[in-house]
Automatic annotation (TrEMBL):
Its main location: mitochondrion. It is found in: Mitochondrion. Residues 48-104 form the Small ribosomal subunit protein mS41 SAM domain. It holds the Pfam family SAM_Ribosomal_mS41. SUPFAM superfamilies: SAM/Pointed domain (SSF47769). The keyword Mitochondrion applies. GO terms for cellular component: mitochondrion. Keywords: Mitochondrion. Coiled coil: none annotated. This is Small ribosomal subunit protein mS41. Belongs to the mitochondrion-specific ribosomal protein mS41 family. Residues 199-230 are annotated as: Disordered. Residues 199-211, 217-230 have a biased composition (Basic and acidic residues).
């Protein structure tokens, strides 16, 4: 009997030891998960306040909570919550944009090469004479420079084109006074993904809300009919 009890006790100890070992391995694997890379700023997005301004939804009011670019892109959702980034959908939106930025999926102006004080200058460039093409291009040029260089050298930003003879069109492009060209400035919500608008409480509450509306309308009609007979 004593031998059987001893064997049973040893079996329980071995089982418990294996359980703790597996749990420890799981925790170890969790801690070794690679940390998401920290992307580099681009000319149109040189710092945290500009990034938060571009993605909109009022996130630029939290700019003071992030001491540096690396600090922002190192934070997790629980850490953002500790900093007071509320509600949860705001944290999700910020994390989604951080991931988009890591992948290079930027908004208008994200591929500008020449930016000064939050402004990018666009000018009209034509192909070299050797090219049998009479098209015109919208190119991003340094401040104070012209578009005399070859189009293959200058930056041709996505989403901007020449319309007519001397008009550059594209997101947030404003014509330059007196000269052909345009300026694009960092603007609040320039990259913002607009939130959908719930109609009648959204899909889950739509039937209930519409029923209450019809009930209120019928009640108002009955009251109006009763008053008309008085």
């Amino acid at each position: 009997m004593k031998g059987e009890r001893l064997r049973a006790s040893l079996g329980m100890l071995l089982q418990t030891s294996n359980t703790f070992s597996r749990a420890g391995q799981i925790r170890f694997l969790h801690k070794t998960r690679p940390v998401p890379p920290i992307p580099k700023p681009v000319p149109f997005v040189p710092d945290v306040p500009t990034f938060l301004t571009l993605i909109g939804r009022g996130l630029n009011k939290y700019a003071s909570k992030f001491p540096s670019w690396d600090a922002l892109f190192s934070l997790t959702s629980p850490q953002l919550r500790e900093l007071g980034i509320e509600p949860a959908r705001t944290r999700r939106y910020l994390l989604q944009w951080m991931q988009r930025y890591r992948k290079g999926a930027l908004g208008p102006g994200g591929d500008f090469r020449y930016v000064q004080n939050g402004e990018a200058i666009l000018k009209i460039a034509t192909p070299p004479a050797a090219m049998l093409h009479d098209g015109k291009y919208a190119v991003n040029v340094p401040h104070g420079d012209s578009a005399d260089a070859a189009p293959s050298v200058l930056s041709r930003p996505v989403g901007y084109r020449v319309q007519g003879l001397r008009t550059i069109v594209g997101p947030y492009a404003t014509p330059l006074p007196g000269v052909s060209g345009a300026v694009v400035k960092v603007t609040e919500g320039m990259w913002e993904h607009r939130q959908g608008r719930k109609i009648d409480g959204g899909e889950r509450r739509r039937a209930e809300v519409q029923f209450k509306k019809r009930s209120a309308e019928r009640r108002a009609e009955r009251e109006a009919e009763m008053l008309s007979h008085l």
